């Protein structure tokens, strides 16, 4: 990760308009997109992003520039969105979706319930609605990992830094999110051979 | 020998690219022989594409056009 340009940080701390404008221009949209992906409506997402920047400015003195501004901003977004959803960031060690995944394989690890053909849903106009509904069903933390890894396409290392969790844990959450989405889509007729 | 469960788990957790070379080669060999795992991975990619498509639709919304300008105004930057 590139170390932050210290003069840029100094300019931000002095509330330099140009530096502020640059941070907003580079990060507002990805933050907004992520907030929408996490299930916030347009006004909620915009309000959340504004809140993220306001907090960013208030906490700039604690920001040591060891991570990138983007990672810092996404970390604030992560905490604020959990607060707003009033959902605990608790993640059970055991998740029922693990059993669903395991039940696809025999004892040796070969498929016994191989993935079904997805062509019917993938080609249909209902795909967007189905994905939206299934995203809404994800536990908050799994949804955040899915949004950051898949929609924002951040690498695992950066997502660890944003969420303050280990790389193994992020892998588990990403896997569970996708397994749950797949399962949800299957129950919505993803695999129907009609 | 690498099994389907391990291939699917590594791919699903997004850990393939971070795996040791030996694992990546084993996965590649496995995929040549296993159409179920190939389908599984293809579907993961589709899932990501579909989710990105969904969210980029939100971003094209007219209400989002002046997002940056509004934010800067509210943060007190002209």
Write the layout of secondary structure elements.
The complex is a heterodimer of chains A (194) and B (78).
Chain A (H helix, E strand, L loop, with lengths): L5 H8 L3 H21 L4 H17 L10 H16 L11 H7 L16 H4 L4 H10 L3 H12 L4 H8 L3 H21 L7
Chain B lengths: L3 H9 L8 H13 L1 H25 L7 H8 L4
Would you give an account of this structure?
The complex is a heterodimer of chains A (194) and B (78). With 194 residues, chain A is mainly α. Helix content of chain A is 64%, strand content 0%. In chain A, helix 2 packs across helix 3. Chain A is elongated and about 60 Å long. Helices cover 71% and strands 0% of the residues of chain B. Chain B is built from four helices and no strands. Chain B is elongated and about 60 Å long. The termini of chain B are far apart. At the A-B interface, helix 2, helix 3, helix 7, helix 8 and helix 10 of A face helix 1, helix 3 and helix 4 of B.
- Largest interface (CB < 8 Å): A-B, 50 and 42 residues
Globular, elongated, flat, extended or rod-shaped: what is the shape of chain A?
Answer: elongated
Determine the fraction of residues in helical runs of chain A and give it as a percent range.
Answer: 55-70%
Largest sheet of chain A: none
Structural class by secondary-structure content of chain A:
mainly alpha
Structural class of chain B: mainly alpha
The largest pleated sheet of chain B is described as: none
Overall geometry of chain B: elongated
Would you kindly provide a brief summary of this structure?
The complex is a heterodimer of chains A (194) and B (78). In chain A, 64% of the residues lie in helices and 0% in strands.
Keywords:
heterodimer; A: 194 residues; mainly alpha; Rna Polymerase Sigma Factor, Chain: A; Arc Repressor Mutant, subunit A; 0% strand; elongated; B: 78 residues; 4 helices
């Amino acid at each position: 990760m590139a170390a932050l340009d210290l003069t840029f940080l100094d300019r931000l701390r002095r509330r330099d308009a140009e530096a502020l404008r640059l941070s907003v221009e580079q990060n507002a949209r990805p933050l907004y997109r992520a907030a929408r992906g996490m299930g916030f409506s347009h006004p909620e997402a915009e309000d959340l992003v504004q809140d993220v920047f306001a907090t960013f400015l208030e906490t700039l003195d604690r920001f040591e520039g060891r991570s990138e501004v983007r990672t810092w901003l996404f970390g604030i977004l992560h905490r604020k969105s959990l607060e707003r959803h009033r959902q605990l960031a608790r993640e059970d060690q055991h998740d029922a979706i693990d059993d669903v995944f395991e039940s696809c394989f025999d004892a040796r690890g070969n498929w016994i319930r191989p993935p079904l053909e997805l062509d019917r849903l993938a080609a249909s106009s209902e795909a967007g609605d189905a994905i939206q509904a299934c995203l809404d069903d994800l536990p908050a933390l799994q949804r955040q990992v899915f949004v950051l890894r898949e929609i924002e396409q951040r690498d695992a290392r950066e997502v660890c830094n944003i969420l303050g969790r280990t790389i193994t844990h992020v892998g588990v959450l990403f896997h569970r999110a996708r397994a749950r989405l797949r399962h949800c889509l299957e129950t919505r007729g993803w695999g129907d051979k009609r | 020998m690498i099994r389907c469960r391990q291939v699917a788990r590594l791919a699903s957790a997004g850990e393939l690219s971070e795996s040791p070379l030996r694992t990546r080669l084993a996965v590649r060999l496995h995929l040549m022989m296993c159409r179920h795992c190939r389908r599984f991975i293809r579907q993961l990619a589709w899932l990501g594409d579909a989710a990105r498509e969904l969210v980029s639709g939100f971003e094209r919304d007219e209400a989002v056009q002046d997002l940056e300008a509004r934010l800067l105004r509210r943060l007190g930057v002209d």
